[in-house]
Amino acid sequence: MRRLATAFLSLGLMIGQAGNAFSAPIDRGAVKLPEGRMLLVATNQMGAVMIGLDNMVRDSHGAVVLVYRVFDPPRVLEGGPIITEEAEAQRFDCDAQNYQSLGSSQYNAAGEEVLWTEEEPTKPVRERTMTSRVADVVCGKVQLPSGNIAKDRATARAMVAQSRAAAP
Questions:
Q1: Helix (H, G, I), strand (E, B) or coil at 147
Q2: What are phi and psi of 17, to 5 degrees?
Q3: Do residues 134 and 67 touch, judged by C-beta distance below 8 A?
Q4: Which has the closest alpha carbon to 102: 94, 93, 114, 112?
Q5: Confidence of residue 3 (pLDDT cuts 50, 70, 90)
Q6: What is the pTM (predicted TM-score) of this model?
Q7: For residue 26, is it left (φ>0), alpha (ψ between -120 and 50) or beta?
Q8: Higher confidence at residue 101 or residue 165?
């Protein structure tokens, strides 16, 4: 339980009782941009999705992970801020094939939080989506090469820019 508690604290999550750790509420501002190693999971025309390797917490049914998104080009919200990065805590239940957003923070180019979303209801993992790619990695269905690991956020952003430049 100590390892689980330490890992949850690194995500900024509060720990409930044993067996109930994945239902703990997250307060605004608790989901921070990741530090440490990240695994590049997928890229598309909107940017890239990564998993914070140093922030993943597993249990017998799945895991809670910090999903890091880089928006390239930046997302421009109607009448609102320009978003370049997002950090989202997600709980995956590999047995039930579903996931839940526990909360997310979106950031501008200066690294300032400009938007926060609260916990959402559990949803099924839909095939051929970025979320399904994350679920495949988290649940052990796919193992990505070690070349997809970035040592930090700056390296991760450089990897995204390089892969986007190489794309047709």
A1: helix
A2: -70, 160
A3: yes
A4: 93
A5: very low
A6: 0.82
A7: beta
A8: 101
Q: Give the span between the Cα atoms of 156 and 83, in whole angstroms.
A: 17
Strands (E), the chain: 38-44, 47-52, 57-58, 62-76, 82-93, 98-107, 113-117, 123-124, 149-150
Task: DSSP for 35-66, please give it.
Answer: -S-EEEEEEETTEEEEEEGGG-EE-SSEEEEE
- 66 vs 102: CA distance, rounded Å: 10
Of 159, 144, 160, which Cα lies nearest the Cα of 53?
144
Cα-based distances in Å from 12 to 28, 79, 89, 96: 10, 30, 10, 25
Q: Are strands 62-76 and 47-52 parallel, antiparallel or unpaired?
A: antiparallel
> What's the mean per-residue pLDDT of the chain?
83
Contact 139, 92 (CB under 8 A): yes
Domains of the chain, first to last: 2-166 (2.40.128.710)
- Bridge-partner residues for 82, per DSSP? 76
Rounded Cα gap, residues 54 and 77, in angstroms: 30
To 5 degrees, how large is the angle CA 52–CA 62–CA 98?
100
CA-nearest of 131, 112, 7, 19 to 69 is 131
